[in-house]
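Revision sheet: structure tokens.
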Amino acid sequence: MRIKQKDLEVLVDQINKVQNCPLTTYTLNKGKYKANVGNYHLSFAYGGVSLRQVANPDGGAYEPLNTGHIPKKALYNVLKAFLAGLETKKG
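Predicted:
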């Protein structure tokens, strides 16, 4: 199965919903963008992709899974496991 960006985005949206986090990374208000703290989103670089989470109102983010930028299929499997863990915890 070929993993596409949309497949990853669906999982990230589910993670945001399970965690009660904002679904968008930034909000436009009066012509200025404000980072939505807590939002999980994808980062693309070095030919790979990683999960990032907004850590502060200025848009600083970190990588909660510590995978680095990896192939889409590898991140898909990690996100599925992460989501399963979150859902079990909420249980």
